[in-house]
Design a protein that fits this description.
Length: 331
């Protein structure tokens, strides 16, 4: 980056390679990271966004439940967001962050952000928006149909598959709740037990909501002409289904946060306050890296809240540094 705090910047990688200071490095350019960068850039902060280019929702054809963006392709949302952020002179670097180190810069936090390939960025604050990864069950067809007709989120896709014959794979303890939830979008929902232990109250709830339990082990998803046709069982035959839901194991991409020493909450995820502040001064985290339930719209809101609070902290720091400078000058 070049120029003064409020001056123009080239937006080129070359500036970052020289190690110039940023006010904020945002790691991850999903909805949370981009919205944080947007608010901060509009506040005339020097912002660098680093992104590896592998968004979680890339397999999905559309996103839902985002006011004014309902039905938009996820890739289109991110492309539009990047253009908006870049319009305020934020820089973008495509790459992977290997490490973040916190340093003591005269009593105020400073960070060294190391990218794969050797580039080192320095920043006053860091926002981590690296998301999570979905671990899917090892069943033939699951990974291939993921984001098409093998889905996870009822709120994201339930309306689009309403009134269809739906199935839920019993590969996760949350599968029962998923089946009961999906029942409001379709009268034809079945739960494939697949060895899942079911308590008496769960069986009673499923029966009361007319959700049959299909016994047996799932062998594979049956796909013909690039469409899901049903679920085949190991024991015998199969069940025709148009769409199947699964509850993946959600694993946060929080290695950078744990390496910095950010504390975890009782749920095992990195703990933050309502604005995204972690236990490590100067480090903020937003989106799915700290909240598996965050949808695109809520992740964007988390990014905005973090940027507001973070910038207030930078203002306080600017005042403190100015007072120190005035004291040294004898003003």
């Amino acid at each position: 980056m070049t120029g003064s705090r409020n001056g123009s910047r080239s937006g080129s990688l070359a500036g970052a390679e020289r190690g110039s200071d940023a006010d904020v490095v945002v790691i991850g350019a999903g909805a949370g990271g981009l919205n944080a960068a947007l608010v901060l850039a509009r506040a005339r902060r020097r912002v660098v966004v680093v992104d590896a280019g592998a968004p979680r929702n890339a397999p999905s054809a559309h996103l839902q439940g985002f006011l004014s963006r309902d039905g938009m392709a996820p890739s289109a949302l991110l492309e539009t967001g990047r253009a908006e952020v870049a319009g305020y002179d934020a820089e973008f670097i495509q790459g992977k962050v290997d490490d973040v180190e916190r340093e003591d810069g005269g009593g105020v936090p400073r960070f060294a952000v190391r990218l794969a390939g050797g580039v080192v960025l320095t920043a006053r604050r860091v926002v981590v928006a690296t998301g999570l990864r979905d671990e899917l069950p090892d069943i033939p067809g699951v990974r291939e149909r993921w984001g098409k007709d093998l889905l996870h989120c009822p709120y994201c896709h339930g309306y689009e598959v309403r009134d269809q014959p739906l199935g839920v794979l019993g590969t996760h303890p949350g599968a029962v709740r998923h089946a009961l939830l999906l029942r409001q979008w379709s009268d034809d929902v079945v739960l494939f037990r697949h060895g899942l232990d079911l308590a008496d109250d769960e069986l009673a709830a499923l029966a009361a909501r007319e959700v049959p339990v299909v016994e047996g082990t799932v062998k594979r998803l049956v796909v013909e002409d690039d469409r899901l046709r049903g679920v085949e069982l190991v024991e015998d035959g199969g069940v025709a289904r148009a769409t199947v839901f699964v509850v993946p194991r959600m694993v946060p991409r929080d290695g950078l946060l744990t390496a910095l020493g950010c504390e975890r909450g009782e749920d095992g995820w990195i703990a933050t306050d309502r604005s995204g502040r972690t236990s490590v001064p100067g480090v903020w985290a937003v989106g799915n890296v700290v909240d598996p339930r965050a949808l695109v719209v809520s992740s964007a809101g988390m990014g905005s809240a973090a940027a507001f609070a973070l910038n207030h902290g930078l203002v306080d720091e600017d005042v403190e540094l100015a007072l120190r400078g005035a004291a040294r000058a004898g003003v």
